[in-house]
Structure formats: C-alpha cells, structure tokens
Amino acid sequence: MTNSTKSSAGFLLITWLVLSVSSTASGYGPGGTAVGTSTNRNNPDVVGTWSGTFQSKHANMSPFTITMVIAPNADGELLATASLSSDCVRDTVLHVTFEGSKVVLAGSDSDGNSITFRGALDSSTTLLQMGYILNGSASGRCELDEGDGSMGKR
C-alpha cells in the first residue's frame, strides 16, 4: 500500500467517523432511523417558510443561500423541503428534530451529499441561528465543509 493510498484510506475513515457521530447526534442513526427524537409537543413552532445565507469557515468556499418550507407529513413528522444554491449539495428534504431547545435539520440529496444544520430560534421565534456541516460525497466537489448563518421566517 502506497503512502497516497494510506492517506486516502485514512481520510475516508475519518470522514465516515465524523458523519457517523454527526448523524447520530442529529437525531438520526444509520439508515435514517430516528434516535433520541423528542416527542415533547412543546417544541417551538418552526412550521412555515424560512430563508437565509450560510458562510463556510473556509475562505475558499462561496456562501450559499437556502429557502425551505417546513411542514408535517402524513405521519406528523416535520420535514423541510429545501432549495439550495450551493456548489456542494443540491435541493433536498431535511428531517426536522429537536434536542432540547435546539432545532436540527438533517438529510441527503440524490447524489449522496449530506448536510446537517443545528441551532436555535431567537426569542421572537422568527430567526434561526444555525451552524452546518456537510459532506460533499466521494465526488470530491466539497468533501467536508462547515460554517454558520441564519434563516428568517417569512
């Protein structure tokens, strides 16, 4: 095994570990199974249309905009249909969960790029301040990125 192959294998292992921990912490385990999802009906009302801009912590990455509509599905689960203008992830459906007072949105697009947003509503309940982490899949487009931003309720 060459040094390049060892380095690539090491990077893939670390990426897998980060995503495994991130997906479990976001309320979803392997296969999208809900874990530790709050059943508290006193969660903040996030249903509606939200939009905002997010900036990577890496200077070479462009900011991206997102608009999402959060609504319950037939089973009562909250889902966000998200439209993104990002180099790293395409339009997707995000699962909405709560970790105490934190709001978590997580999902993957059809190319296998995954993104998780985690943050909280301000006191007016019209502004979500969130951080994000994404994995741009094995395509090499973005590999791993993180940053923060906010979304306002329309």
The total count of helices amounts to 1
The class by helix and strand makeup works out as mainly beta
- Strand order within the widest sheet? 1-2-3-4-5-6-7-8
Which CATH architecture? Beta Barrel
How much of the sequence is in beta strands? 35-45%
N-to-C terminal Cα separation, in Å?
54 Å
SSE order, one letter for each helix or strand: HEEEEEEEE
Low-confidence stretches: 3-40
Count of DSSP strands: 8
CATH class group? Mainly Beta
Estimated radius of gyration: 16 Å
CATH topology: the name is Lipocalin
Major beta sheet, specifics? 8 strands, antiparallel, barrel
Quickly count the domains: 1
The shape is globular
Quaternary status of these chains?
single chain
Any overview of this molecule?
- The chain is mainly beta and about 150 residues long.
- The chain has one domain (about 35-154): Calycin beta-barrel core domain (Lipocalin).
- It contains 1 helix and 8 strands.
- The protein has one helix at about 5-25, and strands spanning about 50-55, 65-70, 80-85, 90-100, 100-110, 115-120, 125-135, 145-154.
- A hairpin with a 5-residue loop joins strand 6 and strand 7 (about 125-135).
- The longest helix is centred in the first third of the chain and has 23 residues, at about 5-25.
- It starts with a helix and ends with a strand.
Question: What would you say about this model in short?
Answer:
The chain is mainly β and 154 residues long. The chain is 15% helix and 44% strand. It is built from one helix and eight strands.
Layout of SSEs?
Blueprint: H1 3-25, E1 48-56, E2 64-72, E3 78-85, E4 92-99, E5 102-108, E6 114-121, E7 127-135, E8 144-153
